[in-house]
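User: My advisor asked me to double-check a structure prediction for Family with sequence similarity 126 member A before group meeting. I don't want to rely on an old file, so could you generate it fresh from this sequence?
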Amino acid sequence: MLAMDQGVVEEWLSEYKTLPDSAVSTYAASLKDKGALVPALYKVIRENYSDLLEPVCHQLFEFYRSGEPQLQRFTLQFLPELLWSLLSASAARDPHTSGCIEALLLGIYNLEIVDKDGQSKVLSFTVPSLSKPSVYHEPSAIGSMALTEGALANHGLSRVVYSGPHLQRETFTAQNRFEVLTFLLLCYNAALSYMTSTSLQSLCQLSSRVCICGYPRQQMRRYKGISTRLTVTSEFLVQLITGIHYALCNGEVELGSKALDDVLYRSQLELFPEALLVGNAIKSSLRGAALKSNNKEGARSIQVEITPTSSRISRNAVTSLSIRGHRWKRHESQEVSVESEAALGGMVIPEINVTGVSGERMPNGDSLRPRADGRAQPDGDMLGAASEVSLDPRSHDSSTRGQEVRRQKSVRRMVENEGSGSASTGRSQY
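Assistant: Sure, here is a fresh prediction for Family with sequence similarity 126 member A from the sequence you gave:
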């Protein structure tokens, strides 16, 4: 560690101890102007054998215990680096170098699980319902849902999931280590919008190192740190994915993509369904999104496409009026096709009204009588097969085109017979 960085850290340690209580808020606002302080503190945390590590951890805990939101967020930005120092020290079986880090993390955990009165807090989370709109979906876009008795009974009901109360911890053990670390990551994710780009990079590096250490992918990533496999839980990986998602949408595209792939790689090896579900969902949603790597400055947020809430009626909506108009257009097109076929035959065919009922009169004075099969025949036999016309206007489609051709031939034969004086008295067979 350079002497300049050591001097910056020592000055930071000394000036806070002399501050009165009335000047804490002003001091907290001035920390962001000290550009050399945060990199120097990262170097102290990464050097486990540094003499400044213990006073730095004590100072960070004093910041968090003060209750000032800006000082608490200043401490939280170092949480990913503190977690990695603790996990790497436990994997190397060197607990003496991580004693002050354990005390800091346990202190933050014990402060967060209780309220101002010292009572255990119970965190509540409302599970989104598909029947209610949100920034991620609208019920109208999903389609009609079956209104069953069970759906009606659960309509409008919101499911609430509770977390807690959590037990206070005095020391880290193999059983409670990731329970505490998962809760600390939950607190970190609650303040993601205030984290700097350096903190987000540290979170991505923590995710990759935890997931690939001791596995073949460690050689692909060319990481030469510890080679011991670290035990993880599904809940811990889900909290890591939540922070990675935010980092991906706020400038850390390269590191975030690698971290997400590494977490999914470890989730597949461990067969963690929760981490696989959340990670694959985020990875699928980012395929069509345009992620920019140069938007590290400015407002930080997760990009979400919101469906417009105004109701719109499609121009192609099927209504009773459109169906009625479609039927009339179809009938008119059928009449035009009949007239065109008659003109091609070289003669004028008497117009036959196929939309009428029994009792309609034909131009030659004969009436149409309905038959048992739904068709009509004239009173006289002079027309022969020409009277074999269906009353259904749908008869002029592709399936009955052959009947129309046969009808035209029979009419032509009838006219020729009338011209020669020998009219046919029998019914022509089709």
